[in-house]
């Protein structure tokens, strides 16, 4: 069987300089950041992708290591490996730049956790980050990248500088990109437990795996949170190594945050995404926009947004621009009040799903040929 590089893990990033922020950005000086990377797919070797896309200064990484996770922030010692870049173990990534590590001879399986340790010796400025990945990173003063475990750490519920892990795997393995918002990124599910809808979907597939390119707060049409989906589609979907399928979950923030998007504009945006996927030879699937009438956050539109949701969902359920549409909204709604999440599936904020809701969402996404 021919081997090739495939995306085994992905983490979509945002700028720390956005005006609308759901998570406080941060910077680092003379600190080690150890981060958990939950692998969707595995392979015989791996390489790590780092990004300073939104940084305003050169990012210096004084040391970097990758290892399989034992538990907590402890590594499996015999797997602990220095990351090198063009043969050296320090790297400077210019503002706006990205870097891929040299190949690491470390086999990994889907479902494994890796621990990525980065030592950041100088002042980084505000960090390019994934703001709500539903995972915890450890921050500690000094260079502790080689330590088998960390103590007296600061725990931070964000992910910094890493955008992916590629794995050397069989070329015929399907790779699905879950492209969307917090309903993919996992808001509302148990922190650090890998109970996102994408994790649940991975457990249900009989072939291949799904990498997660969700960003909490992301919109189809408008920048912030993160670049709008239409702008990041090439980078976060079409450029993903080995991508074979796309699933889209978008729209709730276009009508829920700021000015309510028009149904026609959303339909045009969905249609453009589908056309771009098909032009690249990829099947693309969409989810209906979930219910959120019970949202507890006063800044979220409800009254003017719900009629738009109805119109867009009716279009989604009848359109042929996607290869299939999954009616997630109906699957998780309260049947007595279909604009509300079912009470048993609500995370408590009326906007996001809990662990069981995420599992039901995944059950609804029946990607042809993979289940």
UniProtKB/TrEMBL annotation:
InterPro entries: GDSL_Rv0518-like, SGNH_hydro, SGNH_hydro_sf
Pfam families the UniProt entry points to: Lipase_GDSL_2
Occurrences of domain SGNH hydrolase-type esterase (ranges): 178-360
PANTHER family: GDSL-LIKE LIPASE/ACYLHYDROLASE, PUTATIVE (AFU_ORTHOLOGUE AFUA_2G00820)-RELATED (PTHR43784), GDSL-LIKE LIPASE_ACYLHYDROLASE, PUTATIVE (AFU_ORTHOLOGUE AFUA_2G00820)-RELATED (PTHR43784:SF2)
Protein's name according to its UniProt entry: GDSL family lipase
Organism encoding this protein: Nocardia nova
């Amino acid at each position: 069987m021919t081997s090739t590089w495939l995306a085994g893990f992905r983490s979509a990033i945002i700028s720390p300089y956005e005006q609308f922020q759901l998570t406080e950005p941060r910077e680092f000086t003379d600190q080690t950041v150890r981060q958990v990377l939950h692998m969707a797919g595995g392979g015989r070797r791996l390489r790590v992708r780092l990004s300073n896309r939104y940084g305003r200064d050169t990012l210096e990484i004084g040391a970097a290591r990758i290892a399989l996770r034992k538990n907590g922030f402890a590594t499996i010692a015999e797997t602990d490996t220095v990351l090198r870049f063009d043969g050296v173990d320090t790297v400077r990534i210019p503002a706006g730049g990205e870097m891929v590590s040299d190949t690491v001879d470390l086999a990994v399986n889907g479902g494994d956790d890796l621990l990525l340790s980065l030592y950041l010796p100088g002042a980084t400025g505000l960090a390019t980050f994934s703001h709500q990945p539903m995972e915890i990173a450890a921050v500690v003063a000094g260079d502790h990248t080689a330590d088998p475990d960390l103590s007296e750490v600061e725990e931070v519920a964000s992910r910094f500088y890493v955008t992916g892990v590629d794995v050397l795997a069989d070329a015929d393995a399907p790779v699905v990109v879950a492209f969307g918002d917090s309903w993919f990124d996992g808001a509302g599910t148990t922190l650090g437990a890998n109970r996102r809808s994408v994790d649940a979907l991975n457990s249900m597939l009989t072939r291949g795996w799904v990498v997660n390119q969700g960003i909490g707060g992301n919109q189809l049409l408008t920048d912030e949170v993160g670049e709008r989906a239409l702008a990041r589609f090439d980078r976060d979907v079409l450029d993903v190594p080995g991508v074979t399928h796309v699933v889209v979950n978008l729209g709730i923030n276009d009508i829920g945050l700021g000015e309510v998007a028009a149904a026609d504009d959303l339909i045009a945006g969905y249609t453009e995404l589908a056309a771009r996927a098909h032009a690249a030879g990829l099947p693309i699937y969409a989810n209906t926009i979930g219910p959120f009438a019970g949202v507890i956050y006063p800044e979220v539109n409800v009254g003017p947004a719900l009629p738009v949701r109805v119109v867009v969902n009716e279009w989604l359920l009848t359109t042929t621009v996607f290869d299939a549409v999954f009616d997630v909204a109906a699957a998780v709604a309260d049947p007595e009040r279909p604009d509300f999440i079912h009470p048993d599936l609500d995370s408590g904020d009326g906007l996001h799903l809990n662990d069981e809701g995420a599992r039901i969402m995944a059950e609804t996404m029946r990607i042809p040929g993979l289940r």
